[in-house]
Design a protein that fits this description.
Blueprint lengths: L7 E6 L3 H9 L2 E8 L14 E5 L5 H14 L4 E3 L6 H11 L7 H8 L1 H10 L7 E4 L2 H10 L5 E6 L9 E4 L3 H11 L5 E5 L4 E10 L2 E12 L6 E6 L5 H17 L5 E10 L2 E8 L7 H9 L3 H9 L17 E7 L2 E11 L1 H5 L4 E6 L6 E4 L8 E7 L2 H13 L2 E5 L3
Parallel strand pairs: 1-2, 1-4, 2-3
Antiparallel strand pairs: 5-8, 6-7, 6-8, 9-10, 9-12, 10-11, 11-14, 12-13, 14-18, 15-17, 15-19, 16-18
Length: about 400
Amino acid sequence: MNMSETMKHVLIVGGIREAHDALLNHNCEITWFVKAGTLIPGDQNRRCHQIFVFNGDASDDDLAEIALTMHQVKPFDFVCSFHDNAQTIASVIARKLGIQFPYSDEVIDNTTNKFKMRRALSKASLNTVKHTKIDTKEDIEHFLQMNPDINNFILKPINGTGSLGVTRISRLDTASIESIINENSHSFPMLMEEFIEGKEFSVESFTHNGRHHVAAVTEKFKKPNTFMESGHLVPARLTEDEKNNVCFSVSNYLTALDVKCGPTHTEVMVNDSGVYIIETHTRVGGDQIPTLVKLSTGIDLYNLAALQAIGKDVEPSKLDAAQNQTYACIKFLVQDGNNEIITAIEGIPDIEQQPNVKNVYVRYKVSDKLVPVKHSFDRAASVLAVGDTAENALATADQALVNIRIKTAQGV
């Protein structure tokens, strides 16, 4: 940080607090607009000029008017948002204030709405996944009739995150289809598309001056027979040719979606037929993936996002991976909870002393209920570990996770 530089006043909308901290390190003063339901313990003590907490029913225009009043008292130099869920609001505010915002409305739509993403890729002749928007039960039945050669499909929210509401449908199980329709009808519209078999990865990229730079490819792990992620590994175990194919495909996808700046997190399925995009986001990946990337490659995606948000040029060296890569992974405890009361949590101090364990996190505390996992935020615990090989890193995390003992009593 150059202390001689004039302090910039930045309006941030939404979360990803690590990027906020990076802005503070670059001599910025922060005003933070944050949705009430996304606050976490300690947020009230964050180093901000001011924090404005709004309810979920606040309109974008109302928030823009409030921001304008603040701007007239103490002008903002930049408006930024590091989380795609808040970028629409930030765009409306920036427009009201006459401040340039890095993401166009089209890019935000194409990356937050899965149906619009498919439509944009189809226009660029890059989408081969059969899909449709579902507004009614009859739409599901029609899509099944129109694709008699496909037996397995995915039904998921158009704007969902964290694996919430993602369901696999088999046309051979008519009873299950009826149940799924009844369960999800309140969430229409949804996206229905063919289920792609293969190995799942995510690509962590940073786009600067219109060029897509891949920081890392992440290997993903799922709890068997679910869509719930149980872990991530950086770098993914791919041959050089396989990695190049994945990176080339994702770069084409991002170009077709008109992504011109910032971090992206793109989930893909890979099989012998090609690389199929599942979804992409104009933000860094969740589940501490940026931490894995930094441990493995030295690339700090949070810092790059902060630099770009305040108009700083990103040096090419900051986009280059270290030559001697470390393997970094995170593994999650995806519990079969039954709302039982937690009576004790044991094993954490011993795990934290292990040399290759970088972080241990337990979501719950004693007296909480151990809930069944329906969303990624429900997972009970995680362990982040490193190793000189992928196998060593994964084994360290897996063993540590086994040693976390969450004891429960039957809930009432």
